[in-house]
Amino acid sequence: MPASRTVSENSVQIDDNESSPTTSKADLDAASTYSQSQRANAATSSRDILVFLVAFRILNALCIKTFFQPDEYFQSLEPAWRIAFGPDSGAWITWEWEHHLRSTIIPYIFAGGYRVADFIANYLGAGPFKRAEILIVTPKIIQAHIAACGDYFTWRLAERVYGKRSLEAWICLALTVCSPWQWFCSTRTLSNCLETTMTVIAMNYWPWEWSLRSVDETTMADSVRLEQDPEHTLPERPLRLRRCLVLAAFACILRPTNILIWILVTYFALFRVIKHERMVASRLIKIPLMISVSIPRLVNATRRERWILLWDATLYGAGVLLLSVLCDWTFYHKLTFTPFNFLYFNIAKSLAVFYGRNDWHYYLTQGYPLLLTTFLPFAVLGIYEGLTDKDDTDDEKPEPERLTSAIRYQLTSVCLTIPLALSFISHKEVRFIYPILPLLHVLSSPSAAACIRPSLIAVTATPTPASSLQSSPMSSRLMDRSYLYTKPYKPWSKLSAYRPTILPTILLLNLLIAMFTTQHHQRGVLSVLTYLRTEHETKYLTQPPALAHLPPADTTMTVGFLMPCHSTPWRSHLIHPNIQAWSLGCEPPVHVPPGPEREAYLDEADRFFADPQHFLQTEIGPASTKSVNKQPRSGFGLAAAIFGNKQSAVTEASSSYTDIDIGTSTLFPLRSICPWNGGLGRKPWPEYLVFFEASSKDITEVIAPLGYIPCWRGWNSWFHDDWRRQGDVIVWCRKGNLDSKKLKLAERRQEGWKW
């Protein structure tokens, strides 16, 4: 039986029970007045904005020279490197992957980029120098495109809320482009960044109109309301909802806590709180009492809409889950459900607290200010208006106005509820609430627009009369919702004298914050890897060919990081597999139950910083032949190299852990005896030692008598909340690794530097 469509203001109802068409010809004619040329101009404008955002974020990604979070590398790039180049490539696979806590979707995305970049480098005949640069830049380019999509759909979401090409939408785009946090974080390869992009894209496809109570509930019982978009033809089925559910499912797989967002918006789409009030007379008190009971009822979405939501969510959610399980199976070599493992380890077993506890008010006092920085006042006003402007039940109001109020209220509820829910978890980080930042920008845009335009928030200078509003075509009302914001904006009335200076001040502060966080703060931990990679390329990859009477040139370089664990990136920046490196570990007490034993647990990094000299004297270097591989190539040649033997025993000692221990049969081969790339075996003395200035005095007193001298020092930060990471990044190396000129320079540095 043919379905009939009824176009009412800004929605389309598909009624399966009606056999004859009841479509309003006037409304359909009004929608068709959006001419082909106007449609083409709008598409061109959107395409131009997307191209600009991609170029802008690529520039953003290439300008970042600082370190933020270890997860940027160890939860995405390290497993991606292993997928792309194999188990012998030197990637550091952390304990989270050993216990199947992380989804492999993101690593497979970047692994594909690595394979393509490596193919291009080989096709162009790029040498090791150029190939390394190409492989380092590739993840940045991929993430820049992801960040640009997030910016673009933030702007499109603002258009859905405030109207096409409205001032609020343009201001929202300006907020996300000029945001210091977005400049600092959006192009980093964190799972939270992809989660944020997927969330805001899904929000664009969510059927917000379903949250409105239908005017004629009897007629609408078996109908589907589809938002009218003059730029596109009307879909026969809500395809936008399916796109939304697929993206939302992926976001929940990446970060299981993302499901809280979709539980909330689904609640608003299906339920409405109905208040039941009754006056009751009391015998004890001679004053009548008003008893009010609020009960959620299924009065918003129609029966047809509820069925479509349930069916599509089950179908497409199961499809995404199946794809995730297949990806995880190919990586872990066993069936596993990573979202459950993630929640079980971090919440049920309380292992997240091993990495820090935060105050209950962390997201309120630190999370919001860090995300919004100078835009915080606009967001506070936007949240206040979103809560107080929930006026979507008045049937006499135009439906676009009701829809705007409903969306703003729901976005506000999400922005308040998600930090509140995550506050019950002891371990907190600002990036955990990163997905709500685009929503905060959408809510902030009216107050920011009012700051720019003195009297009106919207573009129009003349309000649209209500009488003409009722008779205007549907498409024009949807394209211009400026009549929604024609009242003077009171919060800025007292600041009218300072208003011209607000925008330049905000832009200047944002520029200073962005430059400091991406060019200066924690720069040394990335610069030191560039130095080490350059040392390897110049000293080990450019050796002359071996002569008949000389042994072949040494090609393996060994490095040790005496830093808090995961203080630097790893193979994604070291690149070359012949750079064998070890670092202090920080494995959590996975198998220790909560209690005094877990509280007293000290990982390798804790033991080092508790007494650096004792740790270096007892836990670094060879102890006995039983502590290493049963089939070493040259025993403990590294100790002989440190104490004067000029042969390349360092390389032989390092390679004894490589070919035998790193196998392809399992994902985590023999970590207990292999010290390299996150292994837990006893660590040998390397050719290069890297550490922070804060612990340099204790370290140098031990390593100086062993033949180490300073060879590099790099700026890192003026301050740091972790005392172990304060000061510059310093590299000491063996004297045999320097030529005569560099050796003399290093000795002068050793005399001049105050360690």
From TrEMBL:
Keywords: Endoplasmic reticulum, Glycosyltransferase, GPI-anchor biosynthesis, Membrane, Transferase, Transmembrane, Transmembrane helix
One GO cellular component, as annotated: endoplasmic reticulum membrane
Pathway assignment: Glycolipid biosynthesis; glycosylphosphatidylinositol-anchor biosynthesis
Bilayer topology annotation: Multi-pass membrane protein
Record's signal peptide: none
Group of enzyme by EC: transferase
GO biological process annotation, one example: GPI anchor biosynthetic process
GO MF term set: alpha-1,2-mannosyltransferase activity
Bias type Polar residues, positions: 1-25
Region: Disordered, residue numbers: 1-27
TM segment ranges: 245-270, 307-331, 337-356, 368-387, 407-425, 497-516
UniProt EC number: 2.4.1.-
Subcellular localization: Endoplasmic reticulum membrane
Family: Belongs to the glycosyltransferase 22 family. PIGB subfamily.
Protein task: Mannosyltransferase involved in glycosylphosphatidylinositol-anchor biosynthesis. Transfers the third mannose to Man2-GlcN-acyl-PI during GPI precursor assembly.
Entry protein name: Mannosyltransferase
Top-level taxonomy: Eukaryota, Fungi, Dikarya, Ascomycota, Pezizomycotina
